[in-house]
Amino acid sequence: MTPHRIFETEKKFRCDKINELVTYALSMDFIRTHENVSEHDIYFTDKDDTFIEQRICLRIRQTENHCEITYKWQSKDTWAFYSKLENNINITHNHKENAIELLQSLWFLRYVDVKKTRNMYKKDGENIVYNIAIDHIEGAGHFVEFEMLSGKALEENQIQSFFESFVDLFRNFGLQEEKLPYRDIVKQMNSNK
Q: What is 4-185's CATH number?
């Protein structure tokens, strides 16, 4: 189990024109890397909900072929998008329940389960990977998530410049910014039932 560390910058939108956005991304040499992948994310928080307030992420993600524990440090709000360091540890599917029990024994509370179907598009840049995730969140609808990944932290002005240029390419597709993480969107929906 080797941890994998990356620096992630992301922004999420509701989108009225998913098909047109995908067609445009493909015309810009993005390649589809995942199609209709089902993800089940189990999010945890601390007893004081500090994780929720500071956008700290502790989750177990399971797909058909992969399972991992993810910890994302406190979000840094940089020019209205979020950047954070992310650590991932791969686990086997048959260790998922053990991982849940371990986190709960360390006093982390199960916060919410999020089920989504994801289509992923990727383009490699110089020392940066650009991702577009088209997500259908069970009970919440469709979203587009723009993500920029780097193996090392960039200067804030570089992050702003690269990331805003990336998102600006897709502004004409009816994007409506969603500021809450999926976990909080789903938690609110469950609370309102």
A: 2.40.320.10
